[in-house]
Design a protein that fits this description.
282 residues, mainly alpha, two-stranded antiparallel ribbon, two-stranded antiparallel sheet, 8 helices, 6 strands, flat, nucleus, ribosome biogenesis, Ribosome biogenesis regulatory protein, Ribosom_reg
């Protein structure tokens, strides 16, 4: 074999290997596949070649997936193309295949009192920027949170008002006011959650249970009477028959003396023994 034949064989081998690696973009199938670009889905109705599948299952699946993926890419390049920030974007059509959801559609969150009030008054929430100008530091800072701009919660000097007590700690007063505002906001947040869950709540935060029976009310009344330091000794009576209605709720359990009658104890034990040996279950 001369040098020319050797070069031809090498070039032919390289071309054959390149054809194996880089396949053609044109895919021909007996039955056309259904391409849903809205869901990026390809439905292949062609019959599986059982012989080729049994000989090499992995290679057959790989080739089938490659051909279907090539058909999907070919269909994508036929869609109108737009450019956004030096990026090529294809405008996909609406989906035509109904894909079932794994979970139900989430329900919309109920509106809070402020949101309902804003809707009734036509108040539109304006989007605020994250940074504001700090006049003291002469720089931009965060509007809320840590190291926020125009932070007056930690001043090094506070002027005492003319109407205030000179001996009063203004720093502690301001800190207490801030804690009160935080607690008020948290209480309002919990009230909004209770309102969304349709839980009846009073202004003081107590939950109103409409399903409470008269017995539950009597028990609560009797417990409240004996919850003070005097164990109800100096509690006022709300009604004359109240003591009769709540009688027995806070009654202490009485235990028999250990030094009782031997005859009564013997009769009790014999009665239990007879019940255990009897054939009828009680």
């Amino acid at each position: 074999m001369n040098s020319n034949d050797l070069v031809k064989n090498i070039l032919k081998r390289d071309v054959d290997e390149q054809d194996k690696i880089l396949k053609s973009t044109e895919v021909i199938k007996p039955c056309p596949v259904d391409v849903d670009l809205g869901n990026l889905l390809v439905w292949d109705p062609n019959i599986i070649d059982q012989q080729a599948y049994k000989e090499n299952r992995d290679e057959y699946i790989k080739n089938t997936m490659r051909d279907n993926m090539q058909l999907l890419v070919n269909a994508l390049w036929q869609m109108p193309i737009e450019r956004h920030d030096n990026t090529v974007v294809a405008k996909l059509p609406d989906a035509k295949t109904i894909v079932p959801r794994e979970k139900p559609v989430p329900k919309p969150k109920p509106l809070t009192k402020w949101q309902k009030f804003a809707q009734s008054k036509g108040i539109v929430k304006k989007k605020k920027t994250k940074f504001v100008w700090d006049e003291t530091k002469k720089e931009w800072g965060r509007r809320y949170g840590y190291k926020k701009a125009n932070d007056e919660t930690k001043p090094w000097l506070i002027e005492v008002p003319t109407t205030a007590d000179p001996s009063e700690d203004q720093f502690a007063k301001r800190l207490a006011a801030k804690k009160e505002r935080v607690a008020k906001n948290e209480f309002q947040r919990l009230k909004n959650i209770a309102h969304s869950k349709k839980i009846n709540m009073r202004n003081d935060g107590a939950i109103i249970n409409k399903k409470s029976s008269a017995i539950d009310v009597k028990k609560a009344l009797a417990t409240a009477k004996y919850s003070d330091a005097s164990m109800g000794q100096f509690s006022e009576r709300a009604a004359v028959n109240e003591e009769q209605q709540t009688r027995g709720f806070n009654k202490k359990r009485k235990y028999e003396s250990n030094l009782g009658s031997l005859k009564s104890e013997t009769s009790k034990q014999l009665k239990i023994f007879e019940q255990m040996n009897s054939s009828t279950k009680k």
